[in-house]
Amino acid sequence: MSDINPAALPVEAVLPRLLECLASSGGAVLEAPPGAGKSTRVPLALLDADWCHGGRVLVLEPRRVAARAVAGFMARQRGEQVGATIGYRTRSDSRISAATRVEVVTEGILTRMLLDDPSLDGYAAVVFDEFHERSLQADLGLALVQEVRGALREDLRLLVMSATLELGPLAEGLGLPVVSSEGRAYPVTISHAPPGRDQDPLAHCAAQVTAVAGQGTTLVFLPGVGEIERVRQRLPAQPPVQVLHGRLDGDQQAAVLAAPADGAARVVLATNVAETSVTIGGVTTVVDSGLARRPQYDPRRHRSRLVTRRISQANADQRAGRAGRLGPGRCIRLWAREEVLARHIEPEIRHTALDGLVLDLARWGCRDPRELFWLDPPPEGAWQAARERLTGLGALDRDGGITDLGRRLNGLPLPPDLAVLVLTGRDRGRPRSAAALAVLLNERAPGLDREPDLARRLQRFLAAPGQWPLLQRELTRLAGDRRDRPDAEPLDLILADAFAERLARCREPGSGRYLLADGGGARLEPGTPLAARDWLLILDTDGQSRDGRVRLAWPLATEAVDAVLERRAKEQDQVHWDSRRERVVAERVRAVGALVLDRRPLAEPSPELLQQGLLAALCDRGLAMLPWDEDSQQLRARIAWMHELEPEHWPAMDDDSLLAGLETWLAPFLAGCRTPRDMQRVPLGEALGLWLGSDRRRRLERALPARWPVASGRSVAINYRAEGGPRLAVKLQECFGMEALPVLADGRLPLTAELLTPAGRPAAITGDLGRFWREGYTAVRKDLRGRYPKHPWPEDPLTAQATGRTKRAQAAKGGDRG
């Protein structure tokens, strides 16, 4: 039996309350800091609950490393091998049996299980561990499980566990009680040691590790495998150095997680897989780079790439806490103490492609994400873009329903674009090669990562698959025993059909600079053999917005280029703004996306094309091209104030937002315009008003009126563009009798009065008219009465008649009271 004492875990104290909530409310949200024991103690406690009835408990972990480690720890508590009562399943391997009752899975596995069996027959509870990491698959899994509980399985228990997430909105949305556990941690002394301005950060990290290593385990957090290797090369041979990341197999990971038997010193270089769920034995010191590798999505080019970003404060706290498990520890943070971190990491659903999510939900039968529960709903723009791409692939029909092709794509454990590559390869006689390409594009391959030529990567991988056992298992799973036919179609064409938007042509022979069909630019490092090619498929870059460095490309043979262009090139009419000649240019071009093969002038462009050209001119030169008179500028300012007060209901009025929405608010008013000069006739106030709609226009007039009648009877314009906020500029005498200024936006937006002399010069500025009459008017009257003797200056302005006239003119009308 294991010598682990579960009773010593802090979470043990809240287990009775937790089990009561699961029995009476059907679920709970457990808040437990690192070290409480939630990942390994709670699932075992559920097995003995009356409602479990011998059913299985499904535990979701965000990473393969954590899934294996958590399953192994629980198995040791029971004195068993993994695969008996406790088992796990990941995409690359599994250890379960008929006797397994706690099944630890990675998040993507749950989605597959739900799609295959929505009722989750045989499972009594689903546990989401480390939900604060907010992965896309965790959000999707929770949405599907919640619908299953409402429609099919009222008896299915749901437990969501988190260490750092603010749980109020989650618990309220799920309708479940919150149970809180204390953590178990000793104090950790935190110090900051940022690198110097010109210092290599990795060399600085290695120096800090060398200085502190020497007792127990020193855990070093680095963003990726590349950084781990570069730091490792800079460290001395003693104490011994181990590494921990997601590419290791289960036995390698287990060796790192176990503490040395004699408590000997060691250094463990790890990615963020060591933040949660897994426990590395013997840690006394943490050295934290403060960085992590996270996916970043470029919606314009539909590409996700891993980028190095600063971690959140919640991540930093978790990392530091690793040093306080055994006794007082220390954490050295390699960034400045003054640097402010975000409180939590941003949910993945906000910054990633949603193609897989949309396809999964289409197979589920959901075409509108609003039908499901989300802590953060899928962004509308990303959802619609994914739906359009999947419709273009033929995976969805026009109504958003899944097609037969969509089901085939969804049946493969790959993103939809890579699944298309695999299916196309099967259909065209290259099943194994296409599957191998998909594996290389989907998984990191140590030793191949720095090779930018995908054809050479493929050749090396197929020649020695034993060097990459994880990738080999993926290949076997995708291709089985299928072999390529000798007469099969070239891989160039299969790849080009799957990734046509990534076709690229060299801008100048031998320059290494390329233009992609999607409009982006890319460059090869000098001396790269691929630079001799005129045409490439550029499959990955470093993500720079202009001329990103090519990380991965496939060289296209001349015959393949000709075939691709014949299949993909389209003739179309298009316009653009020629900023040098200051005119709209219309042409008929033959092109593949942004790659123009030939062009000729278009003699009679359609009104629609001219309109597109004018919109392009506006994007190039800015909104100053438009005839902004005072009325339209004031209307824009009023709408901008409403957006500031109610951003969810009113459009933004800054230049970038208006330029982004030109097609919506301005395009209908460009009918008949052929040149920029013609646009000077566009009624901008009418265009903005029509964009708002009648209901919002009425609200705008009530909340922020353009004019206001003052006591003299004259209607005075309110200046919403004034510095400091809306301002009413009016002659002082016209406000006699007014005790207060008008209220704007139900009192949410202050109005200032600029009281003018009879000559129209500022006399006083006030936001409280009544107070001015009481406290400021006497001094103003004394100062101006002699300079403007023809105008009334009564002692009591609140009882005097308001007027814009002189005393004589006022008397001639019989209305002089002052």
From TrEMBL:
Residue span, Helicase ATP-binding domain: 19-165
PROSITE patterns, alphabetized: HELICASE_ATP_BIND_1 (PS51192), HELICASE_CTER (PS51194)
Stored CDD domains: DEXHc_HrpB, SF2_C_RHA
Molecular function (Gene Ontology), one example: helicase activity
Record domain Helicase C-terminal: where: 204-365
Gene3D superfamilies in alphabetical order: 1.20.120.1080, P-loop containing nucleotide triphosphate hydrolases
Residue stretches in coiled coil: none
Keyword set includes ATP-binding: yes
rRNA-binding recorded as keyword: no
Region (Disordered): 786-818
Pfam families attached to this UniProt entry: CON_HrpB, DEAD, Helicase_C, HrpB_C, WHD_HA2
UniProt keywords, alphabetically: ATP-binding, Helicase, Hydrolase, Nucleotide-binding
Protein name, per record: ATP-dependent helicase HrpB
